[in-house]
Design brief:
By secondary structure, the first copy, chain A, is α+β, with helices and mostly antiparallel strands. Helix content of chain A is 32%, strand content 38%. The first copy, chain A, has five helices and seven strands; from the N terminus they run E-E-H-H-E-E-H-E-H-E-H-E. Chain A has helices at residues 21-31, 45-56, 85-88, 108-122, 137-145; strands spanning 3-9, 12-18, 60-66, 72-82, 90-99, 125-133, 149-158. The longest helix of chain A has 15 residues, at 108-122.
Chain lengths: 159, 159
């Protein structure tokens, strides 16, 4: 539950911390838009099992951003991937970025991605990567403004 | 060093196995096109350090495909990423796919990706994903033929 970083947006202050299963899983899946889907599983068993796998994996960092009143305002997941290319370079991958409705349009998403880039650099990563749905032109402008280039096609195959 | 799967292409047979540091690192970095870059590091220290990180991470599977004479013909890396979306679905990510020059145009790449998809399904993944450089139109046709759709932009930020 300890804070990893503080994000200040004008007078508002947010804390970035590693997600904790019992406290944060319901809020995170709420932000991911899957509360309805979970209706048939009130104990959220499948989510808690997945959380345990994420939490046990040293390459995974599931984060929540909390407002000063403790409410979970946003979430994102970072995956650190070792590889042999580029002299054994580590890459950071950003997924599942969601900002709660009441916390949008304040620059919180930008503060989160900027922090993630700094954290990737601190860990010695040589690359930060993510994919974004082609229908989300607003998100693309956002990532380009932060220095990302859409150099790759993002291929998906649902199973 | 034990075989995970066999790939048969007409009369030619290949074995898929988990990469082993001492035996396979020089061959893999050769396929990745980085032998020249390694010239100043004859012990391949940075690569062996990265290999140890990959090998210790249960979410990573670095594979080599060997021909019948034992030569490393191809390589690819699979990363299994747990997430809370889609009821805690696991995703498989394919990276660093390389087929050696003497082994191309025989369907080996297709056999490898087909095997990776089957392995992802076997592990309960709900999605297989990868990114491909926008300049590689041939690779895009290849992945589309295997069922992938380029629904996302692949953003990269080198550090």
């Amino acid at each position: 539950m300890s804070q990893i970083a503080a994000l200040s947006l004008g007078p508002a202050r947010f804390a970035v911390r590693r997600a904790a299963a019992a406290a944060d899983v319901p809020a995170i899946i709420g932000l991911l838009g899957v509360t309805r889907e979970a209706g048939s599983d009130p104990e959220l068993t499948s989510y808690r099992t997945a959380f345990a796998a994420i939490d046990a994996d040293p390459g995974q960092l599931l984060l929540v951003v909390t407002a000063e009143d403790g409410e979970v305002a946003a979430t994102m997941q970072l995956t650190f991937i070792s590889g042999l290319a580029r002299q054994g370079a580590l890459r950071a991958q950003i997924e599942a970025v969601r900002v709660g409705e009441g916390y949008r349009s304040q620059g919180l998403g930008e503060a989160m991605i900027t922090w993630a880039i700094a954290e990737a650099r601190r860990r010695g990563c040589r690359m930060v990567q993510l994919t974004s749905d082609k229908r989300r032109a607003d998100a693309h402008r956002f990532y380009q403004r932060l220095g990302f280039a859409a150099t790759h096609e993002g291929f998906k195959l649902p199973l």
